[in-house]
Design a protein that fits this description.
The structure holds 2 protein chains of 2 kinds. Chain A is mainly β. Chain A has strands at 3-4, 12-13. The radius of gyration of chain A is 9 Å and the shape is rod-shaped. Chain B is mainly beta. Helix content of chain B is 14%, strand content 47%. Chain B contains 4 helices and 20 strands. Chain B has helices at residues 10-19, 72-79, 141-152, 209-215; strands spanning 2-6, 25-31, 34-40, 46-53, 59-62, 66-71, 87-92, 98-104, 111-117, 126-127, 135-140, 157-163, 166-173, 176-183, 196-199, 203-208, 224-229, 235-241, 245-251, 254-255. A 9-stranded antiparallel beta sheet of chain B has the order 6-2-3-4-19-18-17-11-15. In chain B, helix 3 packs antiparallel against helix 4. Chain B is globular and about 55 Å long. The chains are: A mainly beta, B mainly beta. Chain A binds chain B through residues 1-14, and chain B through 40, 43-47, 124-129, 156-157, 206, 208, 233-234, 250, 252-257.
């Protein structure tokens, strides 16, 4: 099963 | 104080129905340019971004920026009490801890006031960079909803691929496989039935169907949906809200182990 990425890996927390 | 009067109150009802199962609590950020909302689901895999511009309201006033902390299930309960044709007005005082929803029937013979408690929410805003997506597909929103629903009965994840010919959705599960291709189609009578593909580079990404399915609860907001994809970036699923702004969903892709 492919692993689910997390959004914080793409977008910086501001 | 903040006050926004929305002639087409059903829009707000539809927005709540579209996001209340994905996000529990969120701030509605009110400013003189409108209402904005950004929130992630509890697993931080999907993000909702809403914009309702002041110009889409019949009357809009916001004296100073306010973050109205709202439980979406509770707001949905309140808005369900508004008729589909009702005018909805949102009101909040600068230092208050409540928001008032006023519903006016179209012929003004019934006026209802519902007051809801606000909550303090620490918002986790994400900085979403402006991106030139490799592929942008606009297609009928009902068609996208149907495809995602159909594939969900077969598999858990979908591979979405875009080439200059069109967009494909593939899945597989215990019972077998499915592959649906929608070709670019601009020769239809109604613009809303068109499928258009803008592509710089072919792209193929894998997403959890559970989330895509959840996003399609926004189908009632717009006859068309726009899917923006780039390699190794979250997909953007956008429903434009006529004259007001948009409801966008971002979903992180899955990666092969």
């Amino acid at each position: 099963t492919p692993l689910q990425n997390n959004l914080s890996e793409f977008f910086a927390m501001i | 104080m903040f006050e926004g009067r929305l002639l087409q109150g059903s829009l707000l009802k539809k927005v709540l129905e579209a996001i209340k199962d994905l996000v529990t609590d969120t701030n509605f950020d009110c400013s003189e340019t409108g209402i904005a909302l950004q929130a992630m689901d509890s697993s931080h895999v999907a993000l909702v971004s809403l914009l309702l511009k002041d110009t889409g309201f019949d009357h809009f006033r916001c004296d100073r920026n306010l973050a109205l902390g709202i439980n979406l299930q509770n707001m949905s309960k309140m808005l369900k009490c508004a008729g589909n044709d009702d005018i909805i007005t949102l009101k909040a005082e600068d230092e208050g801890d409540t928001i008032t929803f006023m519903f006016e029937s179209p012929n003004q013979d019934k006026i209802s006031d519902f007051e809801m408690k606000l909550m303090d929410i620490d918002s986790e805003h994400l900085g979403i960079p402006d991106t030139d997506y490799q592929a942008i597909v606009t297609m009928p929103s009902a068609e996208f909803q149907r495809i995602v629903r159909d594939l969900s009965s077969i598999g858990d994840t979908a591979v979405i691929g875009v080439t200059k010919e069109g967009i494909s959705f593939s899945t597989g599960g215990d019972i077998g496989k499915a592959n649906i291709v929608c070709r670019q189609n601009t020769n239809v009578d109604k613009e809303e039935d068109q499928t258009t593909v803008e592509i710089h580079e072919p792209v193929s990404l894998t997403f959890a169907l559970r989330y895509l399915n959840s996003f399609t609860k926004a189908t009632a907001l717009s006859p068309q949906v726009t899917l923006s994809l780039s390699k190794e970036l979250p997909i953007v699923v956008e429903y434009k809200i006529e004259k007001m702004g948009f409801l966008r969903f971002y979903l992180a892709p899955k990666i092969e182990e």
